Amino acid sequence: MPKYLIECCTGFWAVNNKFVVEANDELEAEMMAYAHWMEILEPSATCKGEISEESIEENYYCEIT
Q: What's the pTM?
């Protein structure tokens, strides 16, 4: 069975990885790598508490409005 090199990206700078996948074809390889990639990323959002305007400015946090 052939092996394929798959590059998985998030769209964020330096948040990507390459995997070697053994599959029947390119589509199957991409699907397998994508499933694995989603397990690794496990997106989440956790509130860390209230923050002051001063702290926002000091740390250059991006604000969602």
A: 0.64
Distance CA 18, CA 16 (A): 7
Closest CA to 20 of 7, 11, 1, 9: 7
Torsional sign, CA 19, 36, 9, 59? negative
Q: Could you give the CA distance from residue 50 to residue 53 in angstroms, rounded to a whole number?
A: 10
**Could you tell me the two tokens for 56?**
């926002």
Burial of 6 (0-12, 13-18, 19+ CB in 10 A): buried
pLDDT tops 90 at residue 63: no
